[in-house]
Write a structure and sequence with these properties.
The complex is a heterodimer. Chain A is mainly beta. Chain A is 0% helix and 64% strand. Chain B has helices spanning 123-134, 141-158, 162-166, 168-188, 208-212, 214-217, 221-226, 228-234, 236-242, 247-252, 260-267; strands at 21-22, 26-34, 38-40, 43-50, 53-56, 61-73, 76-78, 81-89, 94-96, 99-100, 103-106, 111-113, 116-117. Chain B is of the alpha/beta class. Classes of the chains: A mainly beta, B alpha/beta.
């Protein structure tokens, strides 16, 4: 089981750190540091500072995002915060407010 | 526990993959709460509150205060566990902390250090409420405690809880002792009233204080009405105490006395 899943009714107030993929259906407040990928699914709410290799957002993130590889904002997502990533994908329909830093 | 059915999750994204779990390489520090099952393969520090079942898998480490409906521990837990329904420590469990749950199972091989309380979690509040609600009634503190304990003992049985029900007879046994003495005394009395027998059990504790100090308590109308033996013996006495000067005059009148036998004795 190489993933961590935060279910839709789970609320975590604190810090999550790990080596593996993290999938968030529920709510996380605080700080997320994941070495692998982070996926915020539809309905997921992250009010946290996020650090990961690859970040995919279908839900909502309020907080700064730092991805070492890529950050992808899917059509249904809402992101408020700064994004720092070498590659950033923002799909049509995504809602985003914040600064983008692609390390240029 | 592997057969545990998954909840119906409200999110449309909740597919077959979605059982909330924390993977072996993941560490969560803080408060975790939820309405669904959670499986911990990794590390959680802080507080966990679940409305459903918490599984601590063999590689999972929990340094946390746990509140859940059920807790199944196969891994390591350092912290207190509060479960509304049940706690199961499997053979691979390592637990340091106190467990409070109406049902606790410990499989052979499990390591555990701490205290276990199988009383329902809210029993103290219930007892306090019961005592406070009854404190206005006339009775000594002993019977207040007895009633409070009796109420506490009755509640787990109503909640259809097997382990808690097991403790109920012992509690009621302790409570029943004073009423038994009172019943024996009432049976020895010459003319017991019919309503004293079917009265609720907790009323039967009331004759005890009058026995210890009959001359004082007889004057109390409420207690007098509850004890037939004392009432009968004391009937001539109120006349004597209220009007001591007319004692002989009053006794000489036959109609004022309900029992002619007494009249004969007093007059002589």
């Amino acid at each position: 089981m190489a993933t961590t899943v935060i279910g839709s009714s789970i609320v975590i107030d604190g810090e999550i750190s790990g080596e593996e993929q993290l999938i968030v259906h529920g709510t996380v407040k605080g700080r997320i540091v994941v070495r692998d990928a982070l996926v915020v699914e539809n309905g997921g709410l992250v009010e946290a500072t996020v650090e990961s290799a690859s970040i995919t957002v279908n839900g909502t993130i309020h907080g700064d995002i730092a991805a070492s590889e890529r950050a992808e904002l899917r059509p249904s997502c809402t992101v408020v915060g700064d994004i720092r990533a070498p590659r950033i994908l923002i799909a049509d329909g995504a809602s985003f407010k914040g600064n983008v830093d692609m390390g240029g | 526990m592997a057969t545990k059915t998954r909840n119906n999750l409200p999110s449309p994204e909740a597919s077959a993959e979605v059982i909330a779990h924390i993977g072996p390489g993941t560490r969560v520090v803080g408060r975790v709460s939820g309405q669904e099952d959670l499986r911990v393969h990794g590390t959680v520090e802080g507080t966990v509150r679940l409305a459903q079942t918490l599984f601590v898998e063999p590689e999972g480490v929990l340094l946390a205060e746990v509140f859940a409906r059920d807790v199944v521990v196969s891994g390591t837990v350092v912290g207190n566990i509060h479960a509304e329904s049940a706690v199961l420590l499997t053979a691979s469990a390592r637990v340091v902390g106190d467990i409070r749950s109406p049902r606790v199972s410990v499989e052979p091989g499990a390591a555990f250090r701490g205290a276990i309380s199988m009383e329902p979690v809210d029993v103290d509040e219930l007892a306090a409420e019961a005592s406070a609600a009854r404190s206005y009634t006339r009775s000594d503190t002993r019977s207040i405690h007895a009633r409070g304990a009796l109420t506490v003992g009755e509640r787990p049985a109503a909640a259809s809880n097997g382990d808690a029900r097991r403790s109920t007879p012992a509690r009621q046994q302790a409570v029943r002792l004073p009423p038994r003495r009172a019943q024996a005394f009432t049976a020895a009395a010459p003319a017991p009233r019919t309503w004293t027998t079917p009265a609720p059990r907790h009323f039967e504790a009331d004759p005890i204080p009058p026995i210890t100090a009959p001359m004082v308590v007889v004057q109390h109308p409420a207690i007098r009405s509850s004890d037939d033996r004392l009432r009968r013996r004391s009937e001539p006495l109120p006349a004597a105490t209220t009007e001591p000067t007319n004692d002989a005059k009053k006794l000489a009148r036959p109609r004022t006395l309900p029992r002619g036998k007494h009249k004969v004795e007093r007059v002589d």
